[in-house]
Amino acid sequence: xxxxxxxxxxxxxxxxxxxxxxxxxxxxxxxxxxxxxxxxxxxxxxxxxxxxxxxxxxxxxxxxxxxxxxxxxxxxxxxxxxxxxxxxxxxxxxxxxxxxxxxxxxxxxxxxxxxxxxxxxxxxxxxxxxxxxxxxxxxxxxxxxxxxxxxxxxxxxxxxxxxxxxxxxxxxxxxxxxxxxxxxxxxxxxxxxxxxxxxxxxxxxxxxxxxxxxxxxxxxxxxxxxxxxxxxxxxxxxxxxxxxxxxxxxxxxxxxxxxxxxxxxxxxxxxxxxxxxxxxxxxxxxxxxxxxxxxxxxxxxxxxxxxxxxxxxxxxxxxxxxxxxxxxxxxxxxxxxxxxxxxxxxxxxxxxxxxxxxxxxxxxxxxxxxxxxxxxxxxxxxxxxxxxxxxxxxxxxxxxxxxxxxxxxxxxxxxxxxxxxxxxxxxxxxxxxxxxxxxxxxxxxxxxxxxxxxxxxxxxxxxxxxxxxxxxxxxxxxxxxxxxxxxxxxxxxxxxxxxxxxxxxxx
Length: 507
Fold this sequence. Notes:
It is a single chain. It is built from ten helices and 22 strands. The protein is of the alpha/beta class. The chain has helices spanning 2-35, 89-99, 194-197, 215-223, 258-270, 332-336, 363-367, 408-420, 445-448, 459-487, and strands at residues 74-78, 81-88, 106-114, 117-118, 129-133, 136-137, 140-141, 152-154, 181-183, 203-206, 230-232, 239-241, 254-256, 281-290, 293-301, 318-322, 345-347, 370-372, 396-398, 403-404, 432-433, 438-439.
């Protein structure tokens, strides 16, 4: 028994000595390990670095083609992102079933050839970023689930048309209440997803490359209460069609959507035209260089508005104004209202204008390109008002359908003025004289130049008569003198005349 106890004491002492030895020599062991030669380099190839995930503003989760997997066609880029390339409907469904997990929130499918894409599949339910790009999708059917988490949707460059999105482009996206970015660029869409931009949230939309989207849909989106929350990505490359009526005789006008912003601002200023009930329409007319800057000139149409006076407070840079078919009697506003400063075309046909004398000295009369006064009530043409208008052949002055008062001044002044400026007055033959006297240019002097006669009209006859009497008198005196010298007597009536004191001069 004593021997067993002694052995146990010896074991405890040995373990204590070993523990103390390790404590004191640990530093030396570490030093020795550091001094050892490094291990030879491994012949195993390093694993390729994982591709970088691109997440940019206006971009969903997106990978470049150089990172496309070979087999299988889908791969997990990181714990929450899946990238697929070059798949069809069957292979995509099969690959997603393997790679997608409950944690997957990002999906990018590049170059998918899918006859029918059903977006209501459960596999898309947890996604926050979904991109199907650069492929060919025949049809998108179904609806994203209610309360879907998708914040970014990219369906660009898939040859999509509005017909491929069921009956309406709005239906598949009806429940995407959390969507903040939609990229549908480079497709053939002809309908605008209005439901997406009419909600009270910020959203960025890229519709560039869909040139036949109706401009009226863009306009409606901009005019909604949430218009300040809508951002159009690739703004400069986004176009729309002003008219989608495809007729053989009518072209579709495609414009950059900035045209609509200008139109929106213009519509606001158009509502300020006076009188308040004018209800004129205003559209951008053309671009012109004014004061070193490119300016949108405006065309205003106030025709057939029952106006009795010229409209005032026109939009800035109004270059064309049409007030035809009204009851306007005076052009005084052209002289008084500064908003007529840039006016170059004025159409006042079928009104009650009797004179253009109010335009004398105005900027419009010096710079106009078209001034149409046809079918008014002009009584005379004040040619001095337009004395410097036709230095060039550019301006056109239209006055046909007026019946003016024709007199001798009309024949002497107005008629020569019309004939001299025939290139600028193309309808001069339609300017008529009242009282059925015919066109002004056919007026004859004898028709109108009649004035009351007085004694001065006969002065030439009186002078002629006096000259004749004087000649006869001199002839008679000469004859009497010749008879007296040759025959010695005076013929009658000289011999009957009494002697005068001056007769001795002739003896």
